[in-house]
Amino acid sequence: LYKTRTQTGVNNVREILFRGTVVALITALLVWLSIFMYIAFYYAYVPTISHERPVYLKFKACYKSLCEYDSGKGMCSFPSAHIKLTERQRLLMLGQPYKIHLDLEMPESPTNKDLGMFMVCADFHGSDGKVLANSCRSTMLHYRSYLLDTLYKLIFSPFFVFGNSEEKQNIHIELFSDFEEIESEPITDIFIEIQTTHIEIYSAKFLINARFTGLRFLMYNWPIFSAALGITSNLVFIAIVCMVSWYQIINSEEYHHYIQNQHEEKTLKDFDSGECD
């Protein structure tokens, strides 16, 4: 009798450990599945927030002959550039608004200060060369009075001397504030033109920034909160699906027939063992 009770206790402990292990494995599987589903949804739903391309401006130099350049102005055509966004794959997500702007790094030279306002134009082309959108914006260097300019140079003169800073300005030109790409005509090429020949530019770059709203804004700006909420929602959904599926299984005729057969086989084995005794 003692041996039978001991064996029964061991079997109960084994069964509890087995069930606990199964429950832990299933829980871990559901959690990792929920995490994977959220990550997959995030990368499919939230696009890359920023695309940046360098802008290499070209112009036609002024010259009097093939070997003699004009000592006056250096440009005889508007500075322009061609930007290749993508070859075949679509770069921008459909239905997502984008802010598109051009940044110019310009020295505070007498030429630029005397320039005043100038126009910057951009043409957006498709893969077939068709112009899909265009925009022109005016801009200029930020004005500083003589007094403020003098104070600024006096304060920052040590940085200017040691090369830690320069007399330059970054001009931000917004070409589109709410641009959305057409599904049948993706943007592949962009042509930039600065409509003045009396400008000096250090460098330029073209930027496309996604303007998130609603769920995308929440997922991008509050990633921990949205991840916790999304993973928990996925876990609850998967758990409900598993419970409903298990309920359907245990209430099916096949499952009842299987349990009945198992019970009959066990009864038959117990009867046979009793006869043998």
What is the residue-averaged pLDDT? 85
Major sheet details = 4 strands, antiparallel
CATH topology title of the largest domain: Jelly Rolls
Helicity range: 40-55%
Rounded to an integer in angstroms, the radius of gyration calculated over CA atoms is 36 Å
CATH class of the largest domain: Mainly Beta
**Helical region count?**
6
What can you see in these coordinates?
With 277 residues, the chain is an alpha+beta fold. The protein folds into two domains: 1-45; 50-219, Jelly Rolls, CATH 2.60.120. It is 45% helix and 23% strand. The protein has six helices and eight strands; from the N terminus they run H-E-E-E-H-E-E-H-E-E-E-H-H-H. It has helices at residues 2-45, 110-115, 146-161, 214-221, 223-250, 253-276; strands at residues 50-55, 80-84, 98-107, 118-125, 131-139, 168-179, 189-195, 203-210. The strands form two sheets. Strands 1-8-3-6 form a four-stranded antiparallel β-sheet, with no helix packed on it. Strands 2-7-4-5 form a four-stranded antiparallel β-sheet, with no helix packed on it. Helix 1 (2-45) packs across helix 5 and helix 4 (214-221) packs across helix 5 (223-250). The longest helix is centred in the N-terminal third of the chain and has 44 residues, at 2-45. The two termini are 16 Å apart. Keywords: Endoplasmic reticulum, Lipid metabolism, Membrane, Transmembrane, Transmembrane helix. InterPro entries: Seipin. It is found in: Endoplasmic reticulum membrane. It is a multi-pass membrane protein. It comes from Asbolus verrucosus (Desert ironclad beetle).
